[in-house]
């Protein structure tokens, strides 16, 4: 009888305890939800505030900036403008002549630049040249994955080689570059990775099916990498900026067209580079060039695809086949 009473008492205490634990967990959950809501509102207000008053630009004087595809176009302009802002620029390109010209221009302006030939489709070559850079120049603190190609015709007319090479340059090379340089950034607890996506990484466009795939991939891996480092217990101070340029007048877009040419005119490479550097220096995580297209994509996604197709047809901008 006594045992039965004791067992009943113990059962009652267990029930009370487990109710207590459940109540405690419920309170913790409610507090978490309230905190998330408050922070959500604060971050939203902060991001709207930053549209009108962006964070200050950090100084890049003395930073070692490595740019792939620095012999021509946006990469060349980035090299010239980073050097003008006092950075030490490391130019990589498969095109040695153009790369040397970029460095000569920088030196003629009184800047510091180093040139290296590297075919970024080759992982081992990337790793070998990266070692040379570390010995001869130092630890890279800003990496700009810029080199890219853009064959432009219907998917069914793309060759296997075109598609494979495009993925090697526009996506896989970014991974090899990051594997070569990110460990030093983590160790030094400072660094910035900039990746060139494209407006073709925000909107799907005809004649650019594989290219859009590569540029959407850049957006995806940059977000994932940022998440991976956020979960890293060392909490490394490495920043990320993904850039989505509209058509830039470098010759990469061979046959661009736009219904409203004045509204949607090609961006000059100098303007694109200035805008990219500004986004990096302000620590902006994602930016289009010009800035407005990024917001168009963000809000456009709230509406049905059919509605966005109306906008696509109205603007009628893109590239004709280069065949
Ligand atoms: N020009 C545009 O309209 C536009 C628009 C959106 C995004 N982008 C992106 O911006 C980046 C730069 O474009 P751009 O217009 O300056 O191009 P570009 O053709 O003017 O220059 C690209 C540079 O990359 C180099 N390169 C190509 N293959 C290479 C390889 N295997 N190894 C090393 N270097 C290599 C080329 O030699 C060249 O110097 C690309 O990623 C491109 O996709 C360009």
TrEMBL record:
<dbReference type="GO" id="GO:0005811">
    <property type="term" value="C:lipid droplet"/>
</dbReference>
<dbReference type="GO" id="GO:0052650">
    <property type="term" value="F:all-trans-retinol dehydrogenase (NADP+) activity"/>
</dbReference>
<protein>
    <recommendedName>
        <fullName>Short-chain dehydrogenase/reductase 3</fullName>
    </recommendedName>
</protein>
<dbReference type="InterPro" id="IPR002347">
    <property type="entry name" value="SDR_fam"/>
</dbReference>
<keyword id="KW-0443">Lipid metabolism</keyword>
<keyword id="KW-0521">NADP</keyword>
<dbReference type="Pfam" id="PF00106">
    <property type="entry name" value="adh_short"/>
</dbReference>
<dbReference type="InterPro" id="IPR020904">
    <property type="entry name" value="Sc_DH/Rdtase_CS"/>
</dbReference>
<keyword id="KW-1133">Transmembrane helix</keyword>
<comment type="similarity">
    <text>Belongs to the short-chain dehydrogenases/reductases (SDR) family.</text>
</comment>
<keyword id="KW-0472">Membrane</keyword>
<dbReference type="GO" id="GO:0016020">
    <property type="term" value="C:membrane"/>
</dbReference>
<comment type="function">
    <text>Catalyzes the reduction of all-trans-retinal to all-trans-retinol in the presence of NADPH.</text>
</comment>
<keyword id="KW-0812">Transmembrane</keyword>
<keyword id="KW-0560">Oxidoreductase</keyword>
<feature type="transmembrane region" description="Helical">
    <location>
        <begin position="21"/>
        <end position="43"/>
    </location>
</feature>
<dbReference type="InterPro" id="IPR036291">
    <property type="entry name" value="NAD(P)-bd_dom_sf"/>
</dbReference>
């Amino acid at each position: 009888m006594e045992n039965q009473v004791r067992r009943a008492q113990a059962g009652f205490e267990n029930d009370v305890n487990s109710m207590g634990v459940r109540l405690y967990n419920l309170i913790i959950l409610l507090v978490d939800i309230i905190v998330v809501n408050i922070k959500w509102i604060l971050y939203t207000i902060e991001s709207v505030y930053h549209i009108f008053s962006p964070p200050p630009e950090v100084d890049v004087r003395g930073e070692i900036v490595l740019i792939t595809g620095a012999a021509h176009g946006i990469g060349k302009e980035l090299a010239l403008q980073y050097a003008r802002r006092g950075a030490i620029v490391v130019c990589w390109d498969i095109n040695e002549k153009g790369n040397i010209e970029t460095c000569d221009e920088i030196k003629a302006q009184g800047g510091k630049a180093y040139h290296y030939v590297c075919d970024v489709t080759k992982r081992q070559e990337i790793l070998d040249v990266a070692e040379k850079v570390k010995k001869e120049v130092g630890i890279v603190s800003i990496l700009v994955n810029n080199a890219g190609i853009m064959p432009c015709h219907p998917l069914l007319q793309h060759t296997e080689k075109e598609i494979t090479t495009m993925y090697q340059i526009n996506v896989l090379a970014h991974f090899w570059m990051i594997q070569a340089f990110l460990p030093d950034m983590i160790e030094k607890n400072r660094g910035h990775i900039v990746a060139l996506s494209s407006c073709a990484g925000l909107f799907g466009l005809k004649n650019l099916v594989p290219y859009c795939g590569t540029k959407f991939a850049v957006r995806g891996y940059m977000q994932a990498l940022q998440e991976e480092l956020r979960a890293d217990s060392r909490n490394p101070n490495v920043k990320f900026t993904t850039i989505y340029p509209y058509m830039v007048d470098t010759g990469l877009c061979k046959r661009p067209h736009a219904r409203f040419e004045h509204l949607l005119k090609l961006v000059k490479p100098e303007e694109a580079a200035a805008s990219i550097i500004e986004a990096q220096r302000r620590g902006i995580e994602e930016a289009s060039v010009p800035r407005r297209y990024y917001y168009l994509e963000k809000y456009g996604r709230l509406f049905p695809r059919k509605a966005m197709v109306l906008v696509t047809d109205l603007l009628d901008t893109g590239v004709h086949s280069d065949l």
